[in-house]
Amino acid sequence: NGNRSIIVELGSIEYRLLSDEEQNNIDVLLTKLSKTFSYQTQFFSTIEKIDTTDKVEKIRENIDGQKNIKIKEYGESIIEYLEDIMKEDNLYVRKNYIIISSNESFLKADADLEEFFQNLKYSLSSIRVSARLLDDMEIIELIHRELNKNTNDKIRNIIKEGGLEFCVEAKSKT
Question: 166, exposed or middle or buried, with CB in 10 Å at 0-12, 13-18, 19+?
Answer without folding.
Answer: exposed
